[in-house]
Structures are given as structure tokens and as C-alpha cells.
Write a structure and sequence with these properties.
The chain is of the alpha/beta class. The protein is built from ten helices and ten strands. The strands form two sheets. Strands 2-1-3-10-4 form a five-stranded mixed sheet, sandwiched between helices. Strands 7-6-8-5-9 form a five-stranded mixed sheet. Strand 1, helix 2 (42-55) and strand 2 (60-65) form a beta-alpha-beta unit.
Length: 259
């Protein structure tokens, strides 16, 4: 009798554990997702998340910042479900640190010189950024993807060390570059082209040589995610859902499969 009682007791415990695990899996699909998102994608993500949360019983929290800063936070905290980087070099870095399971390209962007509407300082080339009458703001190469890209472009032209000496400030994100010029604390900088669709008082100085430096914005599933099924569902939504694709089109973020 004691033996049977013990066996029954063990079976009940095992069944209880199985039920709890099953409940956890069901609840995991509806757990809050944490997304580390590059600042350049904020206009898109805000709208995509609104649509996603209205369609599905999921809450999404987003931490915006420079791609490099976000990657550092992910490495230290081991938190979050998704990492949306503004260029593939940071995805490669994340792979090297063994942080991501897979990634999907979402859109492509390229650098432009940004100035005030009307271009009052007549900035038309990268060389104009060296002029004494032009105050320049750039993104930090260690913190933001546009900063890393800017440094590489200027180093190829043997200009970075010269511009570095006259830069008013190196700021953490692409948004702060645009805001500095909007507020008049700087005259020119370099940002991603898609940013300027949301600043009526700024304009882009387009250059063919900069357009050739286009990068893919990618979203990656983090290996330590505690809600991988939910994270995969969001990746599928943002990359394929008709409503999400329309948001990209409306905000003029060109999808990677657009021609």
C-alpha cells in the first residue's frame, strides 16, 4: 500500500509539472516582447507595433538607441527578444558574440548629408564639411551605425582625421544628429536618408557616392529570448504582413525586395 501510494504521489507530481509547463508555453506566446531597435527605425516601429498590438494579445516594449549602444546593452544584460540593427555589420558583431539565432533583412537605407531647409551654408560635398564656416555634428562610430558608416566613408577619402578635429559633437544616435541641425546648434551632419521624411525643416544633400554605401536594416532573434515563438511571429509580421508592408511604403522606407 505504501509503495502504491508513493507511485501515485509521484505520478501526480509529474502530471502537475507537465500541466504547469504546458501553461507556461501557452502564456509565453502572449508574454511581452522586448525589442532593441535602432533609432532610425523609430517612425516605422511605432506604427507597426500599434497595428500588431491591436491585432494580437501581445505587449511590445521597445528600447531605442544607436545600434552599437544597443548591442552593448544586450551583451551585458542578456535581456530582450529581438535586435533591430541599422546595418548588417552590427548583426555580424552580434553573431560573433553568439547572441542571435537568425536575422531577416527589412529595408535598405543609405547615408546623406543633412542641412537646414534651403541649405543656407551651401553645403554640397563632403569636402564642404571641412569649411571653417560649417559646424558639423556626427554620430559616435562606437554607438551608432551611421557613425560607423560615416567614419568608414571619410577614412576612405582620408578625411576623417581632419573632420574629427572640427566636429562640434559626436552624439549617440542618428536622431540626435538631425535634432542638432534642426535646433541650429550645428550646420550639417550625416544621417540615414529615411530619417529626413520626418523632418520638414531639414533637407538631404544627395550624393551618388553615398548612395552606393547603402545598408540593410535587419531584425534578429536573440538566442536568450524567453519567448522565441512570439519573437518569430513578430518577425514574420513585420517582414511579410500587408499592413506592415504598407507602413514601410507610406513612410518611404524602401523594403529590401523593392526595386
Amino acid at each position: 500500500m505504501i509503495f502504491c501510494f508513493r507511485r501515485i504521489h509521484v505520478v501526480i507530481i509529474l502530471l502537475s509539472i507537465t500541466i504547469l509547463l504546458s501553461c507556461d508555453r501557452k502564456e509565453a506566446d502572449h508574454e511581452q516582447l522586448l525589442v532593441f531597435c535602432a533609432a532610425v527605425m523609430k517612425p516605422v516601429m511605432e506604427k507597426v507595433v500599434d497595428v500588431y498590438e491591436s491585432k494580437f494579445d501581445v505587449k511590445i516594449a521597445i528600447q531605442y538607441g544607436g545600434s552599437g549602444t544597443l548591442l552593448s546593452n544586450i551583451r551585458v544584460s542578456k535581456q530582450g527578444d529581438l535586435y533591430l540593427a541599422a546595418d548588417e555589420s552590427f548583426v555580424v558583431d552580434a553573431e560573433r558574440y553568439d547572441l542571435i539565432a537568425n536575422s531577416v533583412p527589412l529595408a535598405h537605407i543609405y547615408p546623406v548629408i543633412v542641412v537646414k531647409k534651403g541649405n543656407p551654408k551651401n553645403v554640397h560635398t563632403l569636402e564642404d564639411l571641412l569649411r571653417n564656416d560649417v559646424d558639423v555634428v556626427l554620430a559616435n562610430p562606437e554607438a551608432a551605425s551611421i557613425g560607423r558608416q560615416t567614419k568608414q566613408i571619410l577614412e576612405q577619402k582620408e578625411m576623417f582625421s581632419k573632420i574629427e578635429k572640427k566636429v562640434v559633437a559626436f552624439v549617440p544616435t542618428v536622431s540626435e544628429v538631425a535634432n542638432s541641425i534642426k535646433l541650429g546648434t550645428s550646420d550639417a551632419g550625416i544621417v540615414w536618408n529615411a530619417m529626413l521624411n520626418h523632418y520638414d525643416d531639414l533637407q538631404a544633400v544627395e550624393m551618388a557616392s553615398l548612395q552606393e554605401e547603402s545598408q540593410n536594416v535587419s531584425i534578429a532573434l536573440l538566442k536568450h529570448s524567453r519567448n522565441k515563438s512570439g519573437a518569430r511571429h513578430f518577425i514574420a509580421f513585420i517582414s511579410n504582413d500587408a499592413d506592415a508592408l504598407q507602413i514601410f511604403a507610406d513612410l518611404e522606407y524602401k523594403k529590401t525586395n523593392d526595386h
